[in-house]
Amino acid sequence: MKRNIFFSGLIVAMAMLLPSCGEDRTYEFLAKTENNYWIESQMRDIYLYYQDVPTLESEEYFSPSEEFFSKMLSSQDKYSYIEMPEEAVTRNNIQDVTYGFDFVLVSDPTQMTSQQSARVLQVLPNSPADMAGLKRGDYIVQVNGENVNSNNTALLQSGGEVTLCVVPLTRDEETGSMVWTEDTLELHLASAMAMENNPFYLYKVIDHGGTKVGYLVYNEFETGPNNSDLSYMEQMLRIFYEFKLQGVTEFVLDLRYNQGGMVSCAQMLATLLAPANCLGQEFAHFVFNDKRQDLNYTLNLQPEYAVFNLNLNRLFIISGQYTASASEMIINGLRPYMIVNLLGTRTIGKNVAMTQIDSPYGFTIYPVTATVYNKNGESDYSGGFAPEYVISELNYYPWGELGDENELLLRNALQWMDGSIPADAENVTEDAPEETPPAEGETGEEENPETEEGESTETEEGTETGNTPKTIYRLKGQPSTGYSSLTRRNFPAAILQPISPTY
Which of 5, 110, 346, 404 has its CA 20 to 30 A from that of 331? Predict the structure, then answer.
């Protein structure tokens, strides 16, 4: 959405800064400050927290635009940002230059040192990381011989050839504690390369005891590889048509690494998952500030996509510490129509929408402009959505690959789907309701609701991929986390198109 530009009083204000005699340099000063007066005009008009925009001293209008924009923000705003021209070029590239893996810095899982390591969250197929043998859940302790820490994360993201030192964990039989093994792996990664990071990281149909379960790892609500492309939305329709053809009646939506994105993608995904008789009804509505109530509008579940709709009456969502924005909009928008079961960790809590405003000066601003509500007028998740069953994958080792039925969170989601309490739920107490007793001939071994620190939880042998180990260990304590390559910015935001509003 391109916004009108208002400079009321600008020339007068500049004139007041000039000497009363001599050469008139009004327009010279105007050229140095008009970009910041433009920012202020937008923020005082459409910004959700416009009443908190401060009155600045005249000399502050000469600040760089990035610095000036930050001065406009309310103390309650964690999300608005400005994108400079060089950043826009990077974000609009169809492909990223990358080694092809995401990671988060964690403390020593053995609790024996203060050393950090980079734990691998996911690996792109056919990437340099994949070719080198890096696996999800691996601990990278060194890169090019240097210990991993918050000061050298750039070495893990893009560049020339690198050598990673990966060390597995094992359980000390005498103490029961987790310790590093001596089986150090040296992995040599080729130079970073251009790769398309498709948001549909993985999708499959699981035959779970005769029930067809759709499983989708969806990492960003994105319309296509660039701002003018709708190919990912078209891909979403093809994926769900295949789910429907295969008779999917249950669904696990994995949003653990999804920080949000385009409202239009969230609207379509909700349409494909919702009960068929709800199509045409409200999915979400957006309320702007009291000066711009003319911009309020509603998104409905789209009946034109009925042929792709799965007609579900319940949904299982896997959440994580990165789940935010449009991902939370899915949870909030579908709850009036169906049972939405949440498993994992608490979401971030972004219940506001952002509008992309392109400036005539080459930069783009993304201010918070509206609050997001569902059909019932609910928007009470600024503190995040708390899952019914809490399971933090960072507390466990090893993980296994996404999509394997014995991968930690998917395995627990399938147990919940069967009517059982997830075996690894960390918030289940002795007061929890009893499970249905096992049928004759069953062992009931999965009834243990919580794995004690340092103990193991047994799984069945891995299926299909065969790469999930039989034993998963619960790590002691709560491992602290640091920098994550998933959050190149310190807030959940996405590449947004200039429409009103984006989210």
Answer: 404
